[in-house]
């Protein structure tokens, strides 16, 4: 099996997994779990503070929405606790393993 075949299989699996998650409603369930975990760790409040700080630094009239999103997104991702990231990966992995019988 060559590298191209492996990439094709991975691409197909990703497409099939995404389709399954959306069509089965699992994606919505996973999003709700993530939202609950982010609320529990006060993530939104922390992101709001970062947004205010960025706007104070730059000025609301000196930044576009796209530039604002581009600058705040990495900070918001960094504020997600590692245990939440790991737990979500485990939940998604378990869900897909059950559906596709893989490990």
TrEMBL record:
Subcellular localization: Nucleus, Nucleoplasm
Keywords (A to Z) from UniProt: Activator, Chromatin regulator, mRNA transport, Nucleus, Protein transport, Transcription, Transcription regulation, Translocation, Transport
GO MF annotation: an example: transcription coactivator activity
GO biological process terms on file: chromatin organization; mRNA export from nucleus; protein transport; transcription elongation by RNA polymerase II
Pfam families the UniProt entry points to: EnY2
One CC-aspect GO term: nucleoplasm
Main localization category: nucleus
HAMAP family: ENY2_Sus1 (MF_03046)
Family, similarity comment: Belongs to the ENY2 family.
Subunit (UniProt): Component of the nuclear pore complex (NPC)-associated TREX-2 complex (transcription and export complex 2). Component of the SAGA transcription coactivator-HAT complex. Within the SAGA complex, participates to a subcomplex of SAGA called the DUB module (deubiquitination module).
Role noted for this protein: Involved in mRNA export coupled transcription activation by association with both the TREX-2 and the SAGA complexes. The transcription regulatory histone acetylation (HAT) complex SAGA is a multiprotein complex that activates transcription by remodeling chromatin and mediating histone acetylation and deubiquitination. Within the SAGA complex, participates to a subcomplex that specifically deubiquitinates histones. The SAGA complex is recruited to specific gene promoters by activators, where it is required for transcription.
Protein name: Transcription and mRNA export factor ENY2
Lineage of the organism: Eukaryota, Metazoa, Ecdysozoa, Arthropoda, Chelicerata
